[in-house]
Amino acid sequence: MAGLERVRFMVVDDNTHMIHIVKTILRGFGATHVFEARDAGDAFQRLRNDAIDIVIVDFMMEVLDGVEFVHMVRNSSDSPNRYVPIIMLTAHSERSRVMAARDAGVNEFCAKPVTALELYRKVAAVIDKPRPFIKTANYFGPDRRRRQDAKYQGPERREGWSEDHKPPAKEAAPPAEEKAAG
């Protein structure tokens, strides 16, 4: 994952120590533009004023929590960037919280204590394997399906990927003669 020096991150957490840890990890990856916000309101305003490429937000915050922030970014009529990739970072990784974050529209979920490797995987996932966005009557955000489950036979079963909502295609390797010439 080259080129993180051009990616503009925003870390949203009401814990100054946690912001410092995440910023240090991101700088270790080569990131040079790392903004911070201490609450959801400040973060939403920062999205309005700065071109942010990836948001890393804590689940538990005062006033508005991370899920409420994600919902606001994805669904508010005055949202400055409904498509910004959002990584939820939290010590509370119970299934119900993961599902709440997913259903609000997060792209990735990362449990604390955060490791550099795990955060790197989440950042790489939103950059290298972006999922298409879905809009339904009750949801707007990245496609929650990561794979097709042939065994699922429930009432909301989809017949497959629609033309406008396919996972990103893997790039084919260049032909052997291009490799030799390059």
From TrEMBL:
Region span, Disordered: 138-182
InterPro entries listed in its UniProt record: Bact_response_regulator, CheY-like_superfamily, Sig_transdc_resp-reg_receiver
Coiled-coil annotated residue ranges, if any: none
Domain of life, per lineage: Bacteria
Response regulatory domain span: 8-127
Residues modified as 4-aspartylphosphate: D58
Record key words, sorted: Phosphoprotein
Biased composition (Basic and acidic residues): 154-169
Record-given protein name: Response regulator
Organism: Asticcacaulis currens
